[in-house]
Amino acid sequence: MIRNKKLIAWVEEMAALCKPDSIYWCNGSEDEFQKLADELIANGTFIKLNESKRPNSFYCHSDPEDVARVENRTFICSVKEEDAGPTNNWVDPKEMKDTLTKKFDGSMKGRTMYVIPYSMGPIGSKISQIGVELTDSRYVVCNMKIMTRMGKEVLDALGENDFVHCLHSVGAPLKPGEKDSTWACSKEKYIVHFPEERLIWSYGSGYGGNALLGKKCFALRIASSMARNEGWLAEHMLIVGITSPEGVKKYFAAAFPSACGKTNLAMLTPTLPGWKVETVGDDIAWMKFGEDGRLYAINPEAGFFGVAPGTSMETNPNALLSMDKNSIFTNTALTPDGDIWWEGLTDTKPEKLTDWLGKEWTPKSKSKAAHPNARFTAPSKQCPVMDPAWESPVGVPISAILFGGRRAKVVPLVYEALSWEHGTFMGSIVSSETTAAATGDVGTVRHDPFAMLPFCGYNMGDYFAHWISIGKKSSLNKLPKIFYVNWFRKDNEGNFLWPGYGENIRVLKWIFDRTEGKDSSVKTPIGFVPKKEGIDLDGMNFRKENLDQLLNVDRDEWLREVKNIRNYYKIFGNKLPAELRSEVDQLEQRLNS
C-alpha cells in the first residue's frame, strides 16, 4: 500500500495531464525487468543478444536525432534569472510551465505511465536522496532498474517524506491502433529543471542523460542546488579507493569532462606492483561532512552508463567485464552472431556488422559502425574491482580531489594546489576539448569549470563561492588536498607524451604520497609540481626527456593563460567571488616574479 499522499496526488495530477491509457507502479523486480524487455523485443526496440556470449543483455539503436544530451534544450528555470547564471539557459518558470503543460497534455495517449520510485545512493543513507520518475518509456524503466535502487523498498523508505518530482515523456502519443516506432521521440525537446521546487520535466527525448532523470538531471543539476542550500557537495566526480603495497588505503574523487578518461581511471588496472585500485563510482559523487570533520562521499548510482567506443581489454578491462551480462547497449554495432562491437573494442575489425543505424557495415564502409557516443548500461555490482565499501551508507573519507581535462599544451602532467581556495581556483579554470557526449562541435577547447558546466543547477559564480565556503567548514588538515592532472599533453609533433591508462597509477602514487605529507615536490608559480624523481618510472618503457616536457611550467604560456582566465571570468560579473579574483592576481604576480 502506498502511504505518501503527496505522491499519490501528484501521480493522479500528471496522469490527468498526460492521459496515459494505464498507470503501472514499478516494483523493481527481475520479473518486471524481463517482462518489459520482452515487450521491447516484440516492439523491435530491443534485440536480445546471444545468450551464450552475453547473458540477459540487449541491444538497441536510437533515432539518429536522439543520440546525446541536448545542452541547448536544457533549462534551469529558477525564479530569478540571475540564480540560473550565465552558463545555463533560463526561462521564467511560469512561462516554461505554460509551454510544457501544452506539450505534456495528452503526450502519453496510447501508452502506459510507469511510476519509478528510486533512491540515489544506498537506501536509508543520510547522504542518499529519493526521487520518483513518471515515464512512458519502457527503455527508461529498464535502464533505471540498472542505474538506481528502485521499487517497493524505496517506497517503504520514503514513507510520508518529500521527494524529487521527475516527469518524462518521449512526446509521441499513439492513436488507437497505431503501431509504435522502435524508438519513439519528438523533434522538439525540453530538459527542464525547477530547482526551488526540486522538480524535473523532460519532454521529447528517449536518450540516456535526457531521459534517465536520476542521472545528470537529479544527481547533478537538482542535487547541486540542494547541496548549496544544505552545505554539502554534489559533483561530477568518480570515486576510487587506492591501496598501497603497505596496505594503506585512501579514497580519491576526480572531476573530468565527459570522455576524458573518467571511467578508465575509476576502474584502473595499475601497472605498479603491489598497488590496488577499487571502484566506488565512475561518474557522480555526493559528499557530506562526517562527525570527524572530513568529507565522506557516496556514489549515488547503482550502475554504469558509459561511453562504449574506445573501451577495450587494453584500455579498460574492468569496464568490459562489468558488461558481460545483464546489460543494455545503445547505438553500438551488432555482430552477425548476436554480440556487440564498437571502434576500439578489437584491433581487427569484423568483416561484417550491422551498424548503429541498422545498415550493413564492412571495414570498407566510410562511416563508423558505432555512434561515437554509443553507451553501455551495466550494474555496478558486476564490476570485478568494486570497492567493498561502495555501498556503505556512511560513505568513504576523501583524501584527495583531482581536476583534469584535455590540454595539449600549457598544463603539466600533475600539480597540487597551494590551498583550498587555490584548489577552488584550479577547479574553476578546467578547460577541455569537447567530445561526442554532447551535441555541438567536436574538438574545440572550452572552459568547463569543475567539469560541471552542463550540470550546475544554479549560478556558477555562486557555485564557486559555495566551494570556498565548504573550505571554511572544516580545519585544513581534514580537508582533501586538491590536484590537477592532464594525461593529454602532446609534443610538438602532436604525439601524446604520457601513455595514460594503467600507467596513471604512477601519478596517483605521487598524489598518495603528498596526502601523507611526503616531500616530493617543487613549488612553482602555479602550484606544487613533482620532482623528477617523484614520479616512479620503474619498469616503464618511457623516455625520461618526455618527463621534462610533461612537468614543465612555461611562464609565458601561463601568462597568456591568465589573460584567457580573466576574459572567461568576465561572464560571471559581480557573482565571481573576490577570492578567485585574488587567486588570478596572485598567480600573475608569481609568474612575473
Low-confidence stretches: none
Shape: globular
Provide mean pLDDT, rounded: 95
- Largest sheet, strands/sense/barrel: 9 strands, mixed
- What is the count of helical runs? 16
Folded structure, characterized:
With 593 residues, the protein is an alpha+beta fold. It has 3 domains: 5-44 and 69-231, 3-Layer(aba) Sandwich (Phosphoenolpyruvate Carboxykinase, domain 1), CATH 3.40.449; 234-302 and 387-554, Phosphoenolpyruvate Carboxykinase, domain 3, CATH 3.90.228; 304-382, Phosphoenolpyruvate Carboxykinase, domain 2 (Beta Complex). Strands 11, 12, 13, 14, 15, 16, 24, 25 and 28 form a 9-stranded mixed β-sheet that branches. Strands 1, 4, 5, 6, 7, 8, 9 and 10 form an 8-stranded mixed β-sheet that branches. A 5-stranded mixed β-sheet has the order 2-3-18-23-17. A hairpin with a 4-residue loop joins strand 9 (190-194) and strand 10. The longest helix is centred in the middle third of the chain and has 17 residues, at 214-230. The radius of gyration is 24 Å and the shape is globular.
